[in-house]
Design brief:
single chain, about 180 residues, mainly alpha, two-stranded antiparallel sheet
Length: about 180
């Protein structure tokens, strides 16, 4: 499970991700120094720590190393969201609360992501997951009492739980139910 990057680790990784090429400590240092006073050895230590933690790989280039990101920022963000969600004692409620915090732009990005994950879903797909998101989040300008967001969320959570409980043999291992 990934641990959230510290402030300086994030500043370094942001550059590695943005530049999307092998970088040296000197390059990162010079860019960071535009924002703050920082020593070469500090940046070198952070990049070495990121290597030890598996965030970057490095290759020798003369007397220095060139560092490359192991994964994308999107993969890092997704892993953090997944970890936070998996720690919830009520994942359905956590998702509903998360959807409720989303802006219209974020909801549109979620709908786009759903179409990528589930190809063939039109914008108004009738897919329960999309309807749950749309129903739980509502439209900009909606007043809290205008739409039964809690009911939609509850129905979505109930449907998800119902689908899982419909046929317990589906989740059973080879030894169970035989």
């Amino acid at each position: 499970m990934p641990r959230q990057l510290g402030e300086l680790e994030d500043a370094v990784m942001t550059r590695v991700w943005q530049w999307n090429r092998p970088v040296t400590v000197r390059e990162v240092l010079e860019d960071l120094q535009q924002e703050r006073s920082i020593a070469y050895t500090t940046v070198m230590t952070v990049m070495d720590n990121l290597h030890q933690k598996g965030w970057v790989r490095r290759e020798v280039d003369g007397r220095a190393y060139r560092y490359t990101a192991v994964s994308t920022r999107a993969a890092y963000s997704a892993a953090l969201m997944n970890e936070a969600w998996s720690r919830s004692d009520n994942p359905a409620a956590a998702l509903v609360a998360f959807f409720g915090m989303m802006s219209a732009e974020q909801r549109e990005a979620l709908a786009d992501a759903m179409r990528i994950v589930r190809p063939g879903l039109p914008g108004a797909s009738g897919h329960p997951a999309e309807e749950a998101v749309d129903g739980a989040v509502g439209e900009p300008g909606d007043e809290p009492g205008d739409e039964p967001a809690d009911e939609a969320a509850g129905e979505a959570a109930g449907e998800a739980a119902g689908e899982a409980a419909e046929d317990p043999a589906d989740d059973a291992g080879p030894e169970t139910g035989r």
